[in-house]
Amino acid sequence: MDSLRVVKRIEKSPINVNSYFVEINILRDAVIKGIPIIYDVEEDDKYLYIIEEYIQGETFMEYITNIRRTKAELIKCIVDICDIITGIHSLQSNPVIYNDLKSENILIKEGKVYLIDFGNCRILGNKFDNDARASVSNVTPEHLNLMEPDITTDVYGIGVLIQMVYQYHKNIFEEDKELINVIVSGCMESNNFNRIANPDIVKKYLSQCILYEDSDNAVNDTSAKGIKVYVYGCREYAGVTHFSIGFTRFLSELKEKSVYIETENGRGFTEYLDKNSIKHRGVINYEKCEIWPYYGGFIYEHISEFEGMHIYDGGVYRGDDIRDGVVIVVITDIKSFGELMYEQSSEMNVIYVVNFSDEAGFKRFDRKTERQAVNMPYFANPLKLNNDSRIFYKKILNLILKNQGCNR
Question: Do 127 and 251 share a structural domain?
Answer without folding.
Answer: no
